[in-house]
Design brief:
Blueprint lengths: L4 E5 L8 H6 L4 E11 L2 E4 L2 H13 L3 E7 L3 H5 L4 H6 L8 H8 L6 E5 L14 H20 L7 E5 L2 H4 L3 H8 L5 E5 L27 H6 L23 E11 L2 E10 L3 H8 L21 H21 L1
Parallel strand pairs: 1-2, 2-4, 4-5, 5-6, 6-7, 7-8
Antiparallel strand pairs: 1-9, 2-3, 8-9
């Protein structure tokens, strides 16, 4: 398989063993950091939990991405106009301010902004096509500016959505099409198909008990028996293709424990990934150089030195 694979995790996976994920063959993790409605405001992951997950994933050598959902309906629910949002400073912005707090100084390589049905949730008015496009542009522009001025470290930005959603909102689709630098992250949930040769356990499980694959088995032996998701936001400026595929949750064993987590794939080789994402990876330590051995003196050189010492000794004895 040439495609890179990864897991989509969230706050409930805060104690997962990232080193075991890397050892099983995963290339990256996408950490879902929130953004959906909670008590009338966008709610995000605990900064402490997130920082710990990022550090441990980075130490394990994994590439780290994040995804959050853009709740556009919040602006209508709080009686804000587009002009109101544009006038906000980053510290006043309820989404950007939390993203700064979470992402600042973190080793993040990519960030997916979710725009789909949850974005429309509101108790006031209707989230229109123009609002969706405006809200996405507002967040993208602010994040890019924060990277330029050094508030946030550089990371690649993309859009998480579905073709059958964006097709209903032409302004949203047109904005994405006008920005070929934004990668496409598309969900299409399936269950990976088991290999033809059965999985085994030691000791064997009862015949009526399900056998879950290890994460390594899931990555190396299971196959995708489904057509990929349809891309969205394409035009003559962008190839009609997706970059990340969210295949939905899968069940597997990690260190003998059952884990339920999202499974994702990158559409391309590592060279493609490096060129598009420019990932931030922990450098491989360079082992210290072995000291050069001290050469043994040649036999003739040693005789010469001994002779010179003998002559010096003779001169000193005569003077004394």
């Amino acid at each position: 398989m040439t495609n890179l694979v990864g897991l989509q995790l969230n706050e409930s996976h805060s104690s997962v063993d990232f080193q075991s994920i890397a050892d099983a063959g995963a290339d990256f993790v996408t950490i879902y950091i929130g953004g959906q409605q909670q008590d009338g405001k966008p709610e995000f992951i605990s900064p402490t939990v997130f920082a710990d997950m990022v550090q441990r994933a980075y130490d394990a050598g994994l590439i780290i991405g994040v995804r959050f959902d853009l709740w556009v309906g919040y602006w209508l629910q709080t009686n804000r106009t587009m002009a109101d949002v544009e006038k906000m400073t980053d510290s006043q912005h309820p989404i950007i301010s939390q993203l700064i707090s979470l992402l600042r100084y973190k080793a993040i390589s990519f960030l997916s902004i979710g725009v789909y049905e949850m974005s429309l949730s509101t108790s006031a008015g209707e989230v229109t096509d123009s609002w969706l496009a405006f809200a996405l542009r507002d967040v993208v522009d602010r994040l890019e500016r924060l990277q330029r001025i050094g508030t946030l470290l550089p990371f690649k930005i993309g859009v998480y959505s579905r073709e059958n959603f964006t097709a209903k909102y032409p302004s949203l689709d047109t904005f994405v099409a006008s920005r070929p630098d934004l990668y496409i992250h598309a969900p299409k949930w399936i269950k990976l198909s088991a290999p033809t040769s059965p999985l085994t356990t030691d000791p064997p499980l009862p015949s009526n008990q399900p056998v879950f694959p290890t994460l390594r088995d899931l990555i190396t032996r299971y196959v995708i028996m489904a057509t990929p998701p349809k891309p969205f936001g394409w035009s003559d400026k962008r190839a009609k293709e997706w970059s990340f595929w969210d295949l939905g949750t899968q069940e597997f064993l990690l260190n003998g424990e059952k884990v339920v987590a999202g499974y994702e794939m990158y559409n391309g080789t590592r060279e493609n990934f490096n060129a598009e994402i420019n990932p931030r990876i922990k450098p491989t330590p360079i082992p210290p150089a072995e000291p050069e051995p001290t050469p043994e003196p040649e036999p003739d050189t040693l005789k010469q030195i001994l002779g010179e010492l003998q002559a010096i000794r003779q001169i000193l004895s005569e003077r004394l």
